[in-house]
Amino acid sequence: MENLTNVTTGKVRLSYVHVFKPYAYQPGQEEKFQVTILVPKTDVDTMNRINAAIEAAKQKGISDKWNGVCPPIVQTPVYDGDGVRPSDGMAFGPECKGHWVFTASAKADYPPEVVDANLNPIINQSEIYSGIYARVNVNFFPYAFGGKKGIGCGLGPVQKLADGEALGGSAPTASQAFGAPAPQQTAAQETQQYQQTQPTINPITGLPM
User: Fold this and answer.
1) For the chain, which residues score pLDDT lower than 50?
2) Kind and range of the H or E run holding 53
3) d(Cα 174, Cα 168) in Å, to the nearest integer?
4) How many domains does the chain have?
5) Whole-model pTM?
6) Under 8 Å between Cβ of 40 and 99
7) Contact 17, 35 (CB under 8 A)
8) How buried is 176 (Cβ within 10 angstroms: 0-12 exposed, 13-18 middle, 19+ buried)?
């Protein structure tokens, strides 16, 4: 049977990437593997499949979680990157413009598979950073927790497709931090410099000229 709540995206951009080590944004929060996914608004196919998966998750919620009733307002995880963040009402970052934005996460004991374009596991963690392009498998699910009812997004395998400009929060390289190395003097330059600082000797008298 086809899993209607499961979606593999087209080419998306990743931000706030924590796929090798679980992370919590606030002290005391549960640490999770997580990544924020930026879907270009031009990728209508991926968004249609995501919207269908969210609808399927709502139907699942009615039968499994919400006592047969769909709440009047269902919190969904997808936001308009041209709008404002729901958490603080501030505008999304410039990288979110022209994208749909959502975060997928997995519990600390379910690390996502991370592979390259040829499906080989990526071992070097520096290859995965905020700003790369990837495809991501996600699963939408209903929840009823703490009086809230909504749709969450679970994180599955991640496939890196291409490098991209690193988004804020990545550490500078050594050359960015310390600048270009100072040019080294050659031995000939050092000898010439030494000679220029020494007084010239008169070969007849043996005294400085």
Assistant:
1) 1, 170
2) helix 44-64
3) 17
4) 1
5) 0.78
6) yes
7) yes
8) exposed
